[in-house]
Model the fold of this input.
Amino acid sequence: MKFVIRGGKKLSGTAPVLGAKNSVLKAMVSSLLFSGPITVTNAPFIEDVFRMSELLANLKVNIKNKGKRTLEIDSSKLWGANLKKELAEKLRASIVLAGPLLARVGKASFPHPGGCVIGKRPIDVFLDGWRAMGARVDEKKGGFSVAAKRLRGADVIFRVASVTGTETLMMTAVLAYGKTILRNAACEPEIPALADFLNAGGAKIKGAGTPTIEIVGTGGRLLKSSRPFRVIPDRIEAGSFLILGASLGKNVKVVNCNPNHLSALITSLKDAGVNLEVGPDWISVKRPKILKAVDIKTHEYPGFPTDLQAPFAVLMTQASGESMIFETIFEGRMGYVDDLKRMGAKIVLCDPHRILINGPAPLRGREIESPDLRAGLAFVIAALLAKGESVINNVYQIDRGYEKIDERLRKLGADIERVD
Ligand code: EPZ
Done:
């Protein structure tokens, strides 16, 4: 499967933002903490959701698509403790499942999680956290097994503010005996969204969204769902559309988003001279006459999101002047630079974390392979900017996190075709 894109067209129209991939996957996993079914609404139908459904179905969790983006997930017949290797390796979020599984059945085994090629993706935060709560961790041929007869609350300090580490250990702690404190926890908005839902089911979580989270465990008693989990708007998808509008927009209106989750990007776009109009749940954007080069440095939330680093770099190839892009979160997230240079971008790779971009540089269409899902979207933006035709292979990576992106881009006037 590939995208064939002919660039150079101005875009205009409305870009509706769907539910966040990095929110829906954790909501699905949280079903293991509940005695009965949970309902998840505003779910995006993306490849990672299908993979997570398969992983859960493998554990006899029953998932029903009720239509209108609503899933009903019932773990009352949960059986097994082993995450299927072929599936778990396809998405990093699979490791999040190990937390509630360990809390629910007392054990979990899983392969080293897969997902993007953006770095070695260690899992020490998870393993150290589970050990602190009394679990035994064994590593054997490329996989792990964790077991605990009785999980006890612990005071855990994260070596790094891991997003999935925070979510996984927060969910593990919900069923533990006693109080857990997570320090240096991640503050991404998907975390309070998850904590609020768990609290509505009877969990006792305080401080989600801040670096210190306190969880008083239920001592093994399962939660009872009292309301649906509404997946929050995908701030990375919204940000990707804003960057697209800043690159090629006559007038693009990004709707069904939460501008409060995008302040770092909005600030950088304004510094670059992009005119934005911000509403309560929409942002309109168009390409300015002169795009100014600005520096960005990725940082944990609420800093500039690492998932928008590659798309923003594409924008900076069209900006006048020199910009420094400093990726502080992952050590392998500059893999897209070579292909962008083959399209004509003027980029110097200073070290695995920093690039210098000089612009504006005209881009020419090329055949490219998307290494990870966010670089994939960056290549779509670059191809829409480039003169001539581009082919983007390995579209599965993009379909992992963006539902029917080609259809939605065509609605904005883009010349993009999905070819088998
Ligand atoms: C989540 O990944 C997101 N994925 C990522 O989005 C996102 O880029 C990342 O958070 C940062 O915002 C999901 O939520 C499924 P981390 P996660 O653990 O949790 C190191 C996308 O495109 N680290 O916060 O895996 C790690 O190597 C994806 O949607 C350890 O050293 O990221 C990285 O350098 C890509 N040990 C840093 O911490 C650990 O045990 C941040 O990683 C865990 C992480």
